[in-house]
Write a structure and sequence with these properties.
- 32% of the residues lie in helices and 22% in strands.
- It is an alpha/beta fold and 446 residues long.
- It has 3 domains: 122 residues, Methylthiotransferase, N-terminal domain (Rossmann fold, 3-Layer(aba) Sandwich); 229 residues, pyruvate-formate lyase- activating enzyme (Alpha-Beta Horseshoe); 61 residues, OB fold (Dihydrolipoamide Acetyltransferase, E2P), CATH 2.40.50.140.
- The strands form 4 sheets. A 6-stranded mixed sheet has the order 2-1-3-4-5-6, sandwiched between helices. Strands 7-10-11-12-13-14 form a 6-stranded parallel sheet. Strands 15-16-17-19-18 form a 5-stranded mixed beta barrel.
- The longest helix has 24 residues.
- The chain starts with 8 loop residues before the first strand and ends with a strand.
Length: 446
C-alpha cells in the first residue's frame, strides 16, 4: 500500500457529455496539483475513478459496466481503491455502494470535498486525493485537457431550471448557476495560452447565461469579452435553449469574426401537444419561427438539433408532424433518440407509453430522412472553399489529415478529409471541397 508521501498513480474514466468531461479535467487538475501521477492504464493505477453519467438508462448501464470493469481490476490488485463520482453517484448514492461493494468512495455532484456521500477512508491516502471538484467548478486547480491541444470546452454554468418532464438533470445537478465573467475569462485566458484555438461553450442552458448573476449579464456580453482574446479563432455555442435565442444574439453572431454561426438547439419535438406534455416552454409554431429567424438573420448558419420520438402518447399524426418538420426545414445535423422512461421524471407517470419497437421504427425513419438531407447539403458544398481547423493526421490515401469546418462541432458531427502538405494540428487553413459523403467533406488545401 502506498504511503501518503509517495506518488499515487490515478486512472480516471470519464463518461457522458462534454459538461461531465470538464468536471473530469478539473478533477485531473486537482490530482496533479496534489502531486499525484496520472495514468491511462487502469492496470497500473493505485486509485481508479469513474466519473459517471446517469441521464438515461443506456448511460446508466454504461456507467455501471465501467464501474464493474474497474472493480474487477481492483480485485486482482490488492491495495487499489475505487472512487465513483458524477451523476450516477448523485442519483443512487449509498444504494450504488450496496450494489457494488468494491466501491470505496462515492462523490455526488452536490457534494463538497469534505462531505462525500459515502466515505471509506483508504489507509495511507490523503483526503484531498479522494474527491472530484464537481460542485465548485471555478476553484483554482488547473485543468488537464483530455481533448486535443487546440480545442476545449468551457463550462459557463452548472445546473438547470427547466422543468422538462423527460429529464432528471435538475435533480442531479441542481438549479442553474452561472459562473462569473471574471472567472470564465481567467480560465479562457489560461486555455488560450496553452494553445487552445477553439472554445466550445457548454452548460445545461447556455442561452440563460448571466441572468442569475448580480450584476446581471448575458451570453452576448460574455461573447464580447471572449472575442478580445487575440489568439482565439473560433467560439462555438452548444446547448442553447430555444426560448431565449433573441435577435440581438443572432445579430451578434452574424457580425462576429470569431463566434461561428453554429446553432446547437435541442428542440426535442415539433408538435405543440407533445411539447406541452414534455413541459417545454415553446410551441410547434415558435420552433418553426425560430429556425426561420436564424436562417434569415445569420449568414451561412448551421443548425444542429436533437429530437425525442416515442414520447408517451405520441400519436401517428404527432410523429408525422415531426417527420414533415425535418423534411421541410432541412437542419444541418440531427440526433434522434427514443424516449427513455426515467424513474423520478414527471413523464414516468404519463399514460400511453409507446412500444419500444414502434419508437425504434420512428427513430430509423427520421434518421433515414436526415441522412438524405445531409448528403444533399454536403454535396452542395463541392466546389466551394472553406476554412478548416486541422485536427490530426490520417492514412487514407490521398487524404493525409482530418479537420473540421465551422459547421462541424467536435465529436458529434462529421469531418473534412484533407490533402496537402505541411499541415499541423491546430492550424487553420483554406481548403477547396472536392467531394462529399452524407457526413464528411473531402478537400484540398489551397
Amino acid at each position: 500500500m502506498k504511503h501518503k508521501r509517495d506518488v499515487v498513480k490515478v486512472g480516471v474514466i470519464s463518461l457522458g457529455c462534454p459538461k461531465n468531461l470538464v468536471d473530469t479535467e478539473k478533477m485531473l487538475g486537482r490530482y496533479v496539483q496534489a502531486g499525484h501521477a496520472l495514468t491511462p492504464d487502469p492496470e497500473e493505477a493505485d486509485l481508479l475513478v469513474v466519473n459517471t453519467c446517469g441521464f438515461i438508462a443506456s448511460a446508466e448501464e454504461e456507467s455501471r459496466q465501467a464501474i464493474l470493469d474497474m472493480a474487477a481490476i481492483k480485485a486482482r490488485r490488492p491495495g487499489v481503491r475505487l472512487a465513483v463520482t458524477g451523476c450516477l453517484a448523485q442519483r443512487h448514492g449509498r444504494l450504488l455502494k450496496e450494489q457494488i461493494p468494491a466501491i470505496d468512495l462515492i462523490v455526488g455532484t452536490h457534494d463538497t470535498p469534505d462531505q462525500p456521500r459515502h466515505v471509506v477512508e483508504p489507509p495511507g491516502y490523503q483526503a484531498q486525493l479522494m474527491f472530484a471538484p464537481l460542485k465548485k467548478t471555478g476553484e483554482g486547480a488547473p485543468r488537464v485537457l483530455t481533448t486535443a491541444k487546440h480545442t476545449s470546452y468551457l463550462k459557463i454554468a452548472e445546473g438547470c431550471n427547466n422543468p422538462c418532464s423527460f429529464c432528471i438533470i435538475p435533480q442531479l445537478r441542481g438549479p442553474f448557476r452561472s459562473r462569473t465573467p471574471e472567472e470564465l475569462m481567467t480560465e479562457a485566458r489560461a486555455l488560450v495560452r496553452g494553445g487552445v484555438r477553439e472554445l466550445n461553450l457548454v452548460s445545461q442552458d447556455t442561452s440563460l447565461y448571466g441572468r442569475d448573476l448580480s450584476p446581471r449579464t448575458s451570453l452576448r456580453h460574455l461573447l464580447t469579452e471572449l472575442e478580445t482574446l487575440s489568439e482565439l479563432q473560433w467560439i462555438r455555442l452548444l446547448y442553447l435553449y430555444p426560448t431565449l435565442i433573441h435577435d440581438d444574439l443572432l445579430d451578434h453572431v452574424n457580425q462576429s469574426a470569431k463566434v461561428v454561426p453554429y446553432w446547437d438547439i435541442p428542440l426535442q419535438h415539433s408538435h405543440s401537444a407533445v411539447l406541452t406534455r414534455m413541459k417545454r416552454a415553446e410551441s410547434g409554431e415558435s420552433v418553426r419561427r425560430l429556425v426561420s429567424r436564424i436562417r434569415e438573420r445569420v449568414l451561412d448558419a448551421a443548425i444542429r438539433s436533437t429530437f425525442i420520438v416515442g414520447f408517451p402518447g405520441e400519436s401517428d399524426d404527432e410523429f408525422n408532424d415531426l417527420y414533415q418538420f425535418v423534411a421541410e426545414f432541412k437542419l444541418d445535423h440531427v440526433g434522434v433518440f427514443t424516449y427513455s422512461d426515467e424513474v423520478g421524471s414527471a413523464a414516468w407517470h404519463l399514460p400511453d407509453k409507446i412500444p419500444a419497437q414502434l419508437a425504434e421504427e420512428r427513430r430509423h425513419r427520421i434518421y433515414a430522412l436526415q441522412q438524405q438531407i445531409s448528403r444533399e447539403k454536403m454535396l452542395a458544398r463541392v466546389g466551394t472553399t472553406c476554412k478548416v481547423l486541422v485536427e490530426q493526421g490520417i492514412q487514407e490515401d490521398p487524404w493525409v489529415y482530418r479537420g473540421r469546418t465551422q459547421w462541424q462541432a467536435p465529436e458529434v458531427d462529421g469531418h473534412v478529409k484533407l490533402k496537402g502538405g505541411h499541415l499541423v494540428p491546430g492550424m487553420m487553413v483554406s481548403a477547396k471541397v472536392l467531394d462529399a459523403t452524407a457526413y464528411d467533406l473531402m478537400a484540398e488545401v489551397v
